[in-house]
Amino acid sequence: MLFLYFFLTVLCIIPHGASQKGSVSCGLASTWLESVVLSINIVKEGFHRELVFEIRHDHAPCDVQVLLVQGLPSGVYIDQYQLASLREDTGLQVLLDSAVDVEDPAYASSGFSAMVYLSSPGLLQAVVPFHGRYHRPSTSGGWEQVPISSPRLLLRPEHCKTVTPTPPHKVVEAPCTVHNESLCSWLEIEGLQVLGFVSLEFPVGDFTLAAPVCAGTALVTMLCCAFLLRTIWKHGTF
Amino acid sequence: MARATHTVLWKLLNVRVLYTVAFVLRIVLVGFGVYQDKTMVVKYTDIDYHVFTDASRFVTKGESPYKRSTYRYTPLVAWMLSPNLYLTPHFGKLLFVTCDVVCGALLHCLLTLRGSSSEAACYFSALWLLNPLPIGVSTRGNAEAVLSLLVLSTLLCLELKRPLIAAFLYGLSIHMKIYPVTYGLAIALSIASQGPSGGRWMFQRLFNKDLLQFAFVSGTVFFGLTLAFYFMYGWDFLHETYLYHLTRRDIRHNFSPYFYMLYLMAESEWSIVLGLVAFLPQAALLFLTSLAFHTDLPLCCFLNTAIFVSFNKVCTSQYFLWYLCLLPLVLPRLSLTVKRGVALLLLWFTGQGLWLAPAYYLEFEGRNTFLYIWFAGLLFLIINSIVMVQIVSHYIPVTVQQKKTE
Questions:
Q1: I need a surface site. Which of A117, A167, B6, B70 has the fewest CB within 10 A?
Q2: Pathway, per Swiss-Prot/TrEMBL (chain B) (predicted)?
Q3: Residues 66-105 of B with CB under 8 A from A
């Protein structure tokens, strides 16, 4: 068993070039990479949802850093302050690639990416809360579909500054940690097995009702206003 | 028997006991909040409290509090809560609950000044001190109690004929939140009507010394603070603290009767026109109420706030506190029967419940309940109007009460 572990470790970290501390370059075994499966799920209903990522794989030959880069459309947002509080409470590590406004409607916003950091050993699972934005009213009311694309999966053996490409996977640059202090090379997994199809829908207003809604609102507010004005006029001292 | 129960009740509601109970109750809840925040997924502390603390962190580092997104308050709040960082993170909550209890004491003072017996004043201030709504709001770390304190102390100083202190507090309250500006005309008319009657018309009397003094002091406080913070934090301060609230086009669901209309028309060219039209009933009602009831400022401020909140383009449940703190001052003068009073209260809660149900289904279940929320918003406005009409028509003005006792 010990021998097997040693073998796998050698398989996992194959040093290239100088063996100086901090400039270690390593690769990940392609057989192990093939065992990696990502499942995505969305839990909760309504405007406040959670994305649940789970990565399953064969026994990892070494400690691996995992980075999920999840592109999100303008129809949803993530609150960075909620993330900060979750980081303290649950250790969730998510970095957003841009400042996200938490109040704008979908049509006044743009998409962004969330970088979710996970590290083995341990359960490679993350629960990321996100929220739906208000959408433009449609001519039929109902719901607006918001598709969520599959995330990119980036891997990096722990303690390796650079990573050697393992074809067909390519090496890309991304922040090393959630603190976004430096860039590291990561191995981006091509042809990832993703379980779970993810699409959302959010209720939208019915634009065909605009005229009756405006008329109804105006009528009720005017009546209430008149009712109050009459009473105040009658009982006030002028 | 009844008398004995009454005496026991009175002993229970002795002013000091009442304040102590109110304070201890709040402290216990603050403690519970700390426990819940640490152990449960659903947090007790309001998100705004974290916003305040984050903003405090910025101001103590010499940076702008508006670096914290959604911070829409005066920098004073961020400064006030800087002990959150140095002393204890719960300092702000302790400050808010203290303000809350002091509000109860101010209500007691105002009530006795307005002719209530100490016993009655106790009962009515208990409606604030033991009310779960203000208790919940302040222990969760919302700053509304600070404003209630400023508004009530302005009224108390006016009642005690201390116009300069009142003017200072009034200027400060408008600086903290914009809504007390709706009391401006009523306060002006009230000061003017107490002075020498110079002209034939009410508006001619507006130019007397007391009033000009009041306007000068409150104006200096308001503009002084505004200018100072503008120079410190620039355009962000003006935008986040005032302009955002004035031009707010928050289309997400809220209690306002205008919500669905403004959401549907958000991108239409009529959007601005509709926003202005929606302002008209509010303005007309505020103007007439100020003219009609300026001789009784607590009633006038209560009605103005209730009108402002009910007819506003955005309305959330914390806005209800703005008039709830003035309600105990109005209640002793109502000739409503207890039965009718309870019926009105139930009606108001029903109105809220009918709104909350479809709002929950929309927000947490993803059902399309926009139309129901719109209906419920309109119904809530109707209910609010009915309650206000009942209050106005069953209110015994102070002059009638004085005549009765003479």
A1: A167
A2: Glycolipid biosynthesis; glycosylphosphatidylinositol-anchor biosynthesis
A3: 69-70
How many CB atoms are located within 10 Å of the residue A228 CB?
26
Domain A26-204 grouped into CATH 2.60.40: yes
The H or E element containing residue B364 is helix B338-365
pLDDT, block means (10 residues), chain A with 238 residues: 39 40 59 85 92 86 87 94 87 92 91 91 86 94 91 86 78 89 88 80 95 96 97 92
Would you call A225 an interface residue with chain B, using a CB distance cutoff of 8 Å?
yes
* Closest residue by Cα to residue A32 from A10, A74, A13, A60: A60
Instruction: Name every residue whose Cβ is closer than 8 Å to that of residue B142 and which is 6 or more positions away in sequence.
Output: B46, B48, B49, B96, B318
Q: Which of residues 107-146 of A touch B (CB under 8 A)?
A: 107, 134, 136-137, 141-143
Instruction: Please list every residue in chain A whose beta carbon sits closer than 8 Å to the beta carbon of residue B250.
Output: 103
Structural domain boundaries in chain A: 26-204
Placement of tokens 């996970």 in the chain? A118
Contact A221 B385 (CB under 8 A): no
From the number of C-beta atoms within 10 Å of its C-beta (0-12, 13-18, 19+), residue B371 rates as middle
Closest CB to A137 among B263, B288, B381 = B263
B window 172-231, beta carbon within 8 A of A? none
pLDDT bracket for residue B244 (50, 70, 90): confident
Residues in B closer than 8 angstroms to A105, CB to CB, are: 251, 266
Mean pLDDT for chain B overall: 90
Q: Hey, is B363 helix, strand or coil? A: helix
What is the SS3 assignment for B41-110? CCCCCCHHHHHHHHHHHHHHCCCCHHHCCCCCCCHHHHHHCCHHHHCCCCHHHHHHHHHHHHHHHHHHHH
